Amino acid sequence: MVQYLVRRLALMVPVAFLVSLAVFSLIHLTPGDPAQIMLGEEHSPEAVAALRHELGLDQPLPEQYLHWIGRAVRGDLGRSVRTNQPVVEAIGERLPNTLELGLAALLWSVVVAIPLGTLAALRRGSAVDVAATGFTVLGVSVPNFFIGILLILVMSVQLRLFPPGGYTSPTESLLDNLHRLVLPAITLGTVTTAVNMRFTRSSMLEVLRQDYIRTARAKGAGWGRVIMRHALKNALIPVVTVVGIQVGAILEGALVTETLFSWPGIGKLAIDSIFGRDYPIVQGIVLTVAFSYMLANLAVDLAYAWLNPRISYG
Q1: How far apart, in Å, are the Cα atoms of 290 and each of 96, 279, 296, 305?
Q2: Rounded mean pLDDT of 35-60?
Q3: In angstroms, how far is the first alpha carbon of the chain from the final one?
Q4: What would the pLDDT profile of 197-256 be if each residue is shown by its tens digit?
Q5: Dist. CA 240–CA 307, nearest whole Å
Q6: How confident is the model over 113-145, as pLDDT tens digits?
Q7: Residue 107 phi/psi, 5° resolution?
């Protein structure tokens, strides 16, 4: 197990290098000059040239990349070209908010999807199954920004049950924080809920046809015992795989959701930085998301051994 962990962690290094190279190249291909954006509409060519020299933007791109990656290896991702704040500090301030939203969306997805997917499989062809299938189709078809707008119109404007946006720190008011978390978490987690429900239903249907399920029933075990101790654990293996992949999708969806609900996470920070041509912030956020995605996949691989004892990484 230790050798497997070391090997997987070592493989993250070249992946992170390729991700950094790709995002550095793409962000510098986008139109716009950070120096001109920082100086505003009224600026002289001399002022722009001086600011570009101060930021190091007048150097060749390979030299800029080598300078940036050299500092990144030491944990220094540079400073924001807009606020002069260290990138690590800016991301560190926003990351807990995104993690809170992402974990809430993932929890909503798992808590709703697994019971309903299991129930749909147990009652195949019933009204519950039809309703679950319909929700799955709608969930994967409707974009999350539309779901968010619809929730704001219905739950905030019409019914006035939840605030339409904003953020309150849990240290200030935990109740208000959770109150404001509901709508963005549902918005962000609806697509993953639909996907997880579909996978749970399909996997459960396949497991219920296995011989050991019929053997357990023939021995007199009740359906509840068979489902919880035999069927569900094996049916969750493909679902765990999908949940691990969805970590990247949730962080990606946070770009839209956080902007829509004015949630101060790294998704909203990324959008603001892209429009402001804040290269260091964008590059730091992409690297953070890449490492989060890789660590999530590593956790999924380790979970396989717990769900299925026949899997070993020795």
Answers
A1: 16, 17, 10, 24
A2: 74
A3: 5
A4: 888 888 888 887 777 777 777 777 666 777 776 677 777 777 777 777 777 677 777 888
A5: 9
A6: 888 888 888 888 888 888 888 888 888 888 888
A7: -65, -45
Q: Which residue has the tokens 């509409």?
A: 41
Q: What is the pLDDT of residue 313?
A: 58
Please state, as a whole number, how many other Cβ atoms lie within 10 Å of the Cβ of residue 242. Answer: 19
Q: ∠ CA(60), CA(62), CA(68), 5° rounding?
A: 105
- Alpha-carbon distance of 227 to 241, in angstroms, equals 20
Residues 6+ apart with CB under 8 A from 7: none
- Smallest Cα–Cα separation from 261: which of 170, 144, 171? 144
Output the pLDDT for position 186.
92
- For the chain, domains (ranges, CATH) are 32-76 (no CATH), 93-307 (1.10.3720.10)
Instruction: Give the other-Cβ count within 10 Å of 106's Cβ.
Output: 20
- 8 Å CB contact between 65 and 58: no
